[in-house]
Amino acid sequence: MLYGADYNPDQWPEEVWDEDVHLMQEAGVNIVSLGIFAWSRIQPAEHVWDFDWLDTVIDKLHAGGIRVNLATATASPPPWVSATYPETLPVDETGASYWPGSRQHFAPSSPTYRRLAGELVRRLAQRYAQHPAVVMWHVGNEFGCHLWMDFSDAARDAYRVWLAKRYRTVDALNEAWGTSFWSQAYGAFHEIFPPRLAPYSHNPSSMLDWRRFTSDMLLECYLAEREILIEAGATQPITTNFMGPFKPADYRGWAPFMDVIADDCYPDPSNPNRIRDAAFQRDLIRSLKPGVPWMLWEQATDAVNWRPANPGKTPGALMAETAQSIARGADGIMFFQWRQSRAGSEKFHSAMLPHAGTDTRTWRAVTDLGARLAALGDLPAPGRDAQVALVFDWENWWAVEERDHPTEIDYLALTLEWYGAFHARGIQVDVIGPEEAASGYDLVVAPVLYLLRDEGAAALARFVEDGGTLITGPFTDIVDEHDQFRTGGFLTRLGDVLGLRYEDFGALAGESSGGSGVGALSADDVQASRDAAARGSVSFSFDGSSSVGRLVAETVHPAGATVVAVFENGLQTGSPAITRHAFGGGEAWYVATHPDPAALDALVGTVVESAGVRPLVDELPPGAEVARRGELVTLINHGEHPVEIAITGTDAETGEAVERVSLDPQGVAFILAPADAPSARPSALSGSAIA
């Protein structure tokens, strides 16, 4: 198990470097990410280079037995870059420049930025690629984190090239974007601009391509640095840090270019759904490279600094949150950062070594964690441990949240609600793209799959035909890869699988209606609010109980499907709310609304029983969590009261046989309990430089 943190010795005098190494050893640290924001220290002026300090730090770490994940330091250009080359600065949609003084103040498409960054990477690689301490390369940092879109002239020029490569002819682009609407037809690629500030909505098909382009430009920056590292002789794993479900970057498209997936995860202690949300993020990250352990590159030891209020972690939460990553495939646990900064925007962000020193609960927590991780020894690689796959697709995310739809949709929030129904039941879930639906799963869940590519539709249909169970809806199979309606209306790709004909969306009104917004509400305002709430939901009967649906109440007609539930009020009274259809060797369920949590839980319970999906343990107590990676089962009690969980196996830390595990609040147990069939796969890290 790799254990460590971001290390920024350039923020501190050389006198503390030896103390850092000594304390790292005490804490169990065996790897650090070094030099992430050190560009100005390495290159204080365009033709001035200073590697002596970095030589000293790396040698000290190596002598202390601490590995180095060496950063390319390109995430924050020094002031001389923008002062000399203002064309490297990004621009917002109004044409205003972003300025230095923060970080990520560079236009990803800028040839000048890429040239300067490339020279820095080349010199770092030539100097350190063969150093025995360097076991990984950290390219950039959190690409796109603060700068979601750049509308600069550099982006304009690159966008035109990107579009010409994608469509070849402007006529093909006009067809894909539907530019006959609003007199938008282009005569040449040089007439196209980024979607800068406009009087009203931009063409949604163009916005979809703009988001694709933005993700690709960030990826190009990574790939350019990766190529330089390889050309300079680097043989160590190369990657960058993801940020879970981060909308601007399509990580599923990035994953093949990462030797190891790395991620940053900061659960909000104030979020009542933080355990569910963090579990989803870790399952998403694990699923991007199946069978390969990943690394948690950043988490907080205690409080962060960027939220309106920043409470610290409760006692034991650090171990519980870390165990969640290990349970879901992580072989590396790291923090931002090693030593707490004494200046700058993140000086209130916690670290492994806090300002208050080693006589602190934070220091005791990180040293205890280091010792416990070291005692775990080698871990099995994550295998195909899930019977259920949840479809989460970036292009669909971009398209479904575009403007001018029947209703506003928060794709991630709806996906998390579906995920939570499985998480609470102790059912393991892989997070996949629609094209990855395969017969290895018993159940595939595809919420709100508005944009459905032909390849994804074919994979889902094949999955059901081969004997799997699919559940989807609402607002699914509406548009093609260009965000255009297909000929024939809706459900043109999955209609036969679902046994349905789709007529209309049936958007529901918002859940609240504003009064004057000033002073007390009048009786009329109160009644209007109640009426709006009623319009914002529908009722249907399922499994013997009255249930509530939100968002939409679609009008669908059976074309072979069996009606399981019908709407009981509203315009769609009597219309199907839930259907079930046999197709090939499997079956497909459709939900024509978004069920409230109770109804969603009941529906998931019915579907998993029908599909033969079993939880990892029987009778998982509320607040408890379970996950499997190969033969290792991790149990975590996130609740406020002790729990007991029945499981037969061997305690991975003590070697003792167990049949029942008792866990105090925030307690964690690692149990070796082989599955019925072997599922662990060889680790992609085995035998590598970081093993």
If you had to describe this structure to a student in words, what would you say it looks like?
The chain has a domain at 388-611: 3-Layer(aba) Sandwich (Rossmann fold). It is 31% helix and 19% strand. The strands form 5 sheets. A 9-stranded parallel beta sheet has the order 5-4-3-2-1-9-8-7-6, with helices on one face. Strands 11-10-12-13-20-19-18 form a 7-stranded mixed beta sheet, with helices on both faces. A 5-stranded antiparallel beta sheet has the order 22-23-26-24-25, covered by helices on one side. The protein has 691 residues and is an alpha/beta fold. The N and C termini lie close together (9 Å). The longest helix has 28 residues, at 204-231. Helix 5 (111-128) packs parallel to helix 8 (204-231), helix 10 packs across helix 14 (411-423) and helix 14 (411-423) packs across helix 18.
Alpha-beta classification:
alpha/beta
| Helical run tally | 18
Q: Enumerate the strands of the largest sheet in spatial order, edge to edge or round the barrel.
A: 5-4-3-2-1-9-8-7-6
- Output the CATH topology of the domain at 388-611: Rossmann fold
Estimate what percentage of residues fall within beta strands: 15-25%
CATH second-level architecture of the domain at 388-611:
3-Layer(aba) Sandwich
